[in-house]
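How a chain folds remains the central question behind the approach discussed here. No coordinates are needed to read the tokens, only the vocabulary itself. For completeness, the protein is quoted in full, as a sequence line and a line of structure tokens:
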Amino acid sequence: MFGFFKKKVWPPNKQNPPWGNASSIYGHIAAHTGPTGLSEEGYELPDEKVSDSNKISFAPGAMDGVMSHHGASNSEDQRVFELYGALKRAIENASDSNIRALYFLIKDGSALGVIDELMERIRSDRALDADRLYHIVHWFSTHAAHREPVKFSMALLGMLRGSDDSEIFLTLGRHDEFTLYAAVAISGNVSYGERVLWKLAKTVEGWGRIHAVERLAGTADEEIKNWLVREGYINAVMYEYLACICARAGDLHIALQADRIDDELLNSAAEIVDTMIVGDNGPAEGLSDYEHGYAVVRALLEHGKRRFVSVSHYSFLFRLRDWLNEHQSGERKLQQDWPADGVDRIFATLSDILAEDHWKREISSALEFGDRRQFRNASSVCQEFGIDPFPYFYARTESGDEYWWDLMRNSDSKRIDQVLELGLKRIPLDEIATGPRNELGLGPEYSAHTSLDFILQELGKFPGKGWAFIAAGLQSPVVRNRNMSVRALSRWNRKVWPEEALAALNRLKQFEVNDDVRTRIEDVLAGNEIH
């Protein structure tokens, strides 16, 4: 009963933090940041959970990135109420128990779903001491050992005025897990300015680049605009998320009005338009959504008439022609600023450029000597020149690359033995056939199982061929390998089954740990084909 009269505590006891002796996330990122950015060791955060091969893992920032772009914005009123109450109690009395209660309430949830409503509650109530709030969230931002309290505190820190905390945001924001919160904090505070946000955007490549660039979309800074159309769209997630944003925000249609543009802008503009073509009807805006699409394409073709020479250029021009073909044939309808006579002129220009003599030579060279990207572009269009891609896929796979899907897709009854013989040399079947388990088979340690997937998914078309791969798949710990093996056998006539196939299926049925796989085995044994 006398607890009511205890003296309230302020400031918090920083010698007894709720995270104990665990390492600071801020300190970890700062210690692993150098002139070239965050090191590989820096990406492994101190609170990282041990990976589980049976669970889908997300790249840094991916969970928040996907949810912020594609997730539902459901209100979490009860949690906002609890967080606000815990924050208020910690500010009024920073006892160890109140600070601990606040910290673990944040730690055990996601900041993303509640932070906007919480900030609105703080602004509207005006009941929290701003100096004390700053003290707590600054401490958590720079010393906390778990990611959700750091995110939560970054957001609230950015809401407060009077202190320059840009270095905190720039440091934490170097890790994609925190860039969204850094970008929001910087863009929401007029004292920082666009240049600070731009500095952040240039230090990240994944979801962080997407979050930062999206918040530069209204820039009037010519230097930032120039960067957007040359580099800003480049990210490690999907170029499609940023291509249209950067074209629009960077005034690409105006940049291409110059009498002459340099090669860097020519190439980046082609890549942006190519990305928008690929992204049409995708998760972000595509070329059909871009209001300056016609002006950009027309100007780009004019600049590139005699300068489009690479395989990447051909691949872009080829896709652009296909995209226009769809609209000219009536399969789709052109939106925005595409006049009919202008489309005809662009189509004629494209046809002339694509008919030039040098392309076959460039394609052949890229197939033979190109890097991985050049090779992929060349292999996707080589049949337009009557070039068979199979020998090139085979040669690259034989030398250590992984083109099993392409090899199987381009195989026929004359080639399948050659592919399977190479597979026996390159894919360690004995190491795969360790017995059935419920493994998802995700991650680089399952690369051999993934290679086996590509073989198995096409073997149904080649009855009697590749039993060694099916047998290994039936004993793989990865569920999809076993499913694909069972499906391949179901497509073969029983007459071409090897003698041991029936025994192998019955043995697997006995020891199978996955009910769905067991059901498929029973279907096959009953004579049904699995689709």
In short: Residues 70-75 have pLDDT under 50 and may be disordered. The chain has 30 helices and two strands. The longest strand covers residues 33-34.
